[in-house]
């Protein structure tokens, strides 16, 4: 089932109950599909790229054969959808909605960033889109997927760039059917009505209709909400993201390879930042150095013909906090001066092929730590290394238990350098944040997954103890105004020997930092 308005003459003859997947199964269908794609890829040089994102056909240096997105195969996306379908009652529908475009001012937009659940299930990277996955035990894959996307529109694409269109939703992204997004309400009504009428025991609609964690939802969410109200199906509605996040929590080998590269790229950028750092520069200069060096690391790593820098961008708004700015956990103004004698706390990470890194390093502006800085840094580093050694399944620890251990270990370290402080002071003043969170497509990944669950192999977590000494007479004067955090990205192993640190290329020991910064 498909309808394409931009090549109406050729498509109108094909408005039937056949989906594009059915077209693939016959020689005539293949020929027809080929002609459709040839029409969509006009000779107009501005719209000659007919996908709205890199694909193997247009960017073989970025997307390998058999891959839907860089590093992730078509088969892996199918397996993700199968796992989701297997977790649903028969006949149930799962609606995954795209993110919206966000605007700085009229006609000036932010770079688009796809909803992580939709991306995880499909690899599709355009706004105004919905994927509907229905559990169907009799179907070849155990499910069917219908996608609602923006159709090809050469006149619009002339201004806004190429779209993937309905054909690619089927041929590249694995949909069984594809319809224009403007038809979503009509077809969603049919899907919900048919599922409701089937009377399958325990069927449900799985969708995230309300914005959470500061996220705004697609306008299509309201349409589905009204459809469900009219169908009196409210009691059958459940949240989708918790089911998807359970799958996202455990990373595949392909995902870990991408996250390993994100760590390598970020490590190269941290090295460049440390080498560039000197008194008199601005925090903003370090931020721009990090972003440039992240891309440059993918130019230098590529072959003579492959520049992979298009695969990276900042994973989040970074922290480059010099001096007392480091006492603010998420200082992101990054507009202060670098002064001799101060430390810089840099919390930054590159995204690589949609997967995030999240690394923090603290280093001296001058290139050498003072004695108080050295003592406090060593205390944090000792604790961090102890906590990393707990990041394996055989330890039986959860992230919450690792956090409690980090608090106790910091109290011990602080006593050795002259602090006489209570556990309450450590938890509320000196170390007020959690030691860890999950990492993946999002920086704070799978936020619905409790940090109280025992670690499992191939979870990826951060370990980031810190100390932030305020100007307070309760704490030794030599340390006041110093903020230090050290953060690495860890793949949980079955045993300690199988645990992997993805961010080792970012200098971390005092000796390595001072060697990197030596002039």
Structural description of this entry:
Helices cover 36% and strands 15% of the residues. It has 16 helices and 21 strands. The strands form seven sheets. Strands 8-7-6-3-9-10 form a six-stranded mixed beta sheet, with helices on both faces. α8 runs parallel beside α9, α11 (253-276) crosses α12 (283-300) and α13 (371-388) runs antiparallel to α14. It starts with 7 loop residues before the first helix and ends with a helix.
**C-alpha termini separation:** 65 Å
- SS class: alpha+beta
Whole-number average pLDDT?
Answer: 90
Within the largest sheet, what's the order of strands?
A: 8-7-6-3-9-10
- Write down how many β-strands occur, each being a DSSP E stretch of 2 or more residues: 21
Helix content: 25-40%
Shape: globular
Condensed summary:
36% of the residues lie in helices and 15% in strands.
What descriptive keywords fit this protein?
519 residues, 36% helix, disordered N terminus, alpha+beta, 3-stranded antiparallel β-sheet, globular
